[in-house]
Amino acid sequence: MGRLFKKAAPAVLMSLVVLAGLYLSLQVYLSGQSLAAFCLVGLLGLAVYVYTSTKAYNYRYLFPGLIAVLLFVILPIAINFSIGFTNYSSKHLLSFERSTQYFLDQTYTVEGGSLAFTLHPDGAAYRIRLEAEDGKVFVTPALALQNKAVEVEALLPTPADAPLAEAADTRTLIQNLKALKLVTVKLPDGLSVSAAGLREFAPVRKQYLKQPDGSLLDQESGDVLRPDMEQGFYKNQAGEEMQPGFTTVIGFDHYVRIFSDRALSEPLVQIFIWTVLFAGLTVVFAFSVGVVLAVLMSWEALAGRAIYRVLLFIPYAVPGFISILVFKGLFNENSGEINLVLGQLFGLTPNWFTDPFLAKTMLLIVNTWLGFPYMMLLCMGLIKAIPSDLYEASAIAGAGPLTNFFKITLPLIAKPMTPLLISAFAFNFNNFVIVALLTGGRPDFLGTKIPAGTTDVLVSYTYRIAFEDSGQDFGLASALSTVIFLMVVLLSLVNMRISKTTANEQG
């Protein structure tokens, strides 16, 4: 019995997983995401093949990792890359079909023929009583008023239906007015009415009618809206853009704009230069401080080395965002301790957050503080690997500490540290956290169409384009992030090449 269970358990488990996957795919398909549903079915079929076929046995252990890479690495990159070829922004959030449907759902109130109405509770729902000017009364079925469009038919009440609960008061009407305006009541004569205030329903009519050529006729004004597939808007006869816009493919326009639009390219060039300087100087300063401290911590005659090591490691142990926020308070121009000390000693109160040079200096100081413990630890490990015979021979030759440092220590740790320094450069090239938390990219450049700061790095500038600008141009931000991604890929390839060369030299 136990053997039979062990043999049947994998098949049963696989069957349950397949059923769950098919159910999930069906739900995704019913929600309107047909492409995603087909992809899920494809992945499910591939999983069944991998775990049931003897030919794919070697991939059974790799399959979960490959799927994770596909879903969490390749798919986001592909989505970001595709958005860069569209005009997707806060003004173009909807698809063309949804934008068209938005206009077709719009209604307007027709003058004349209004009906007085009262709202009557019916359990947890409500019934609407309409009374025409000729005295005819119509009553709707019980409705659960919600914030969604509802169309119901109202009939002449029969004696059994005539008794209604006491009409709701004005307060209840106000609370439910938004939901009432979404209710369209169809009367027996075919007329449709909707709430036009707290006391009356008025005839409504579809504002836009779709024409055979795809244009939309405004039945209220007689205007015609035509879709502009290049700009992503419906435009009226006067050429005005009608909201909401829709997403459309614009090709390489964003990439051309990045390098040709002076309003974008000029701050972009300055931000790129600062990004390279920020990443490079951070690595130089952090490595310089780290290697000097590592040499001192390796000095056996230094008393209390263990305590110093713990104290110097604290900046690396404390979460970075906490340290950044603490420094933001310390550098506060009005009440920060740094300005208080400088003011007392030298009479200086630097404008750390409003002067571009000082803001950049502050960023480098804080980032060096966060980065030097890591460099110090690496250098300490490398220094221990240096043969002591070299220092003994140097001492016999009469060389001093500086000679030992520049002729022995630094050359021997420079090669193994080179790939790590390049990695640190790539990390700081995309160091969004410190810029966002400390300066927010400010102070801003003057006279730019898109907000751009003197302390922005490329990634924070991209973030501001996508989420902080009033236009929220997601397509442009995606194109820019793709360019940054290619830069980082290039840095990674250089790092791999140097690492390989270093490994061959050491071998």
UniProtKB/TrEMBL annotation:
Q: Name one Pfam family in it.
A: MalF_P2
Q: Which family does it belong to?
A: Belongs to the binding-protein-dependent transport system permease family. MalFG subfamily.
Q: What is its membrane topology?
A: Multi-pass membrane protein
InterPro entries from the UniProt entry = MalF_N, MalF_P2, MalF_P2_sf, MetI-like, MetI-like_sf
All copies of the ABC transmembrane type-1 domain together span 272-495
What start-end ranges are recorded for coiled-coil regions in this protein?
A: none
Q: Where in the cell is it found?
A: Cell inner membrane; Cell membrane
* Protein name as catalogued: Maltose/maltodextrin transport system permease protein
Q: Give the PANTHER family listed for this entry.
A: MALTOSE/MALTODEXTRIN TRANSPORT SYSTEM PERMEASE PROTEIN MALF (PTHR47314), MALTOSE_MALTODEXTRIN TRANSPORT SYSTEM PERMEASE PROTEIN MALF (PTHR47314:SF1)
GO biological process per UniProt: maltodextrin transmembrane transport
